[in-house]
Structure formats: C-alpha cells, structure tokens
Write a structure and sequence with these properties.
This protein is α/β, with parallel strands linked by helices and about 220 residues long. The chain contains ten helices and five strands; from the N terminus they run E-H-E-H-E-H-E-H-E-H-H-H-H-H-H.
C-alpha cells in the first residue's frame, strides 16, 4: 500500500531534496509540495495525504499553526515536524499542536523514509533523550483526564512503547479499526492532540519508562 506524502517547506531546494530521497522508496508517493503553511493546509484539505512533512518556520502561516488545524480537520493525516535543531522550542509547540514526531533536517535519507512509514502506521518513535526532554517541556493536562478503561490503558501502554496500530491489534487480539477507535477515545479523554503527547503522558504517570520507548530511527 502506497503512503501518500505532502512536503511543506519554504525552501525549494529542500523540497526537491526530500522528493528525491522519497522517490527511492516505491512505498512512498509525494502527492504535493507547499511553500508555506497556508498552502500546506489547502493542499492537505484537498489531497488528504497520509503523512505531511512540515517545516516549522514558514511564511503566511507557520508550521505549528498549520499542524494544529490539519490535525483537527484531518485526524487520519499524521504530521511529522521538520526542524533544524532539536532545542528549538517550536518543536515542543509542534508536538503540542498534534505532530506525531519530528525530524532534524540533516536526517539520513533511509531514516527519513523509515520515520514516514512509522508515522503512517501511527507509530510514535522517540529516543529516550528526546522523550525525557519533551516530558519536561510539554505541559501536563490542565485538568484531570477522564478515567481510561482497562483496554484503553492497554492501548496507551502499547502506544508509549512505540507500537504501530497493526502491532497493537496483534498484541491485544483486536482489529486495527478497533485500535483507531480506542486511540481517538484516549486522545479525547486525555485532552491531547496527538499520540506523541499521549505517549509522553503515559511516561509521566508511570505506565511505561522513557527507556522502554522504541528509539527513533
């Protein structure tokens, strides 16, 4: 099954490079390119990609704002934030807006392709170091989340361990669509916008340890 990708970056050289990297993988298809956040939002609405690679610093509308709107309007589209430096506070803002993960712009081509496939599968991947940093900086829910059912807790634990929807379905002996339903309910109950935030919450409350998460790349 082909994964449909939208590239959003205000530098044409970066877009061309990303397109070239992705063309080497027959499972990935670049269906559009955007030069700013506003164009990214318009194309996402019309093309409904599986994954958006979103630069964070762009004109018209920045990547963080675009991520938030895309995730609200297109919950089946996952967004991977792209940035130059891990320490940029906009990365944290992107995760809070709903990005499932983030990449540095110097990411190797094979790691980029693997991260896109993981995002399309609903797979949260964070290195222990990145997870620890994000746990400190991503705000906890402003109010006590609604109680999760036992099955929702099982699903959340699997998400925090970096499992894909398919892996969760297999491990819990349920269907993939059921997994997606549980994930939607978990995000709603926790009051968060992304699986990544849910995973960080699971670490924060002790459901899993940061070290147990599947490393990125």
């Amino acid at each position: 099954m082909t994964i449909r990708v939208l590239i959003a970056d205000d530098h044409s050289v970066v877009r061309q490079g990303l397109r070239m990297f992705l063309a080497a993988d027959s499972e990935l298809e670049v269906i559009g390119e955007a030069a700013d956040g506003g164009e990214a939002l318009q194309l996402a609405r019309s093309l409904k990609p599986d994954v958006v690679l979103m630069d964070l610093l762009m004109p018209v509308m920045d990547g963080v704002q675009a991520i938030g709107i895309i995730r609200r309007e297109l919950p089946d589209t996952e967004v991977v934030a792209v940035t130059r430096v891990l320490e940029d506070t906009s990365v944290v803002e992107a995760i809070c807006a709903g990005a499932i993960g983030y990449l540095l712009k110097d990411t190797e081509a094979h790691e980029l392709r693997r991260a896109i496939r993981a995002a399309a599968a609903g797979q949260v991947q964070m290195s222990p170091q990145a997870a620890a940093r994000l746990i400190r900086e991503v705000a906890a829910p402003t109010q006590a989340p609604a109680a999760l059912t036992e099955r929702e807790t099982d699903v959340l634990r699997q998400i925090a361990q970096g499992k894909s929807n398919k892996e969760i379905a297999h491990n819990l002996s349920i269907g993939e669509q059921t997994v997606k339903t549980h994930v939607a309910r978990i995000l709603d109950k926790l009051g968060v916008a992304s699986r990544t935030q849910a995973a960080l919450y699971a670490v924060r409350v002790g459901l899993v340890s940061a070290e147990s998460q599947k490393p990125a790349g």
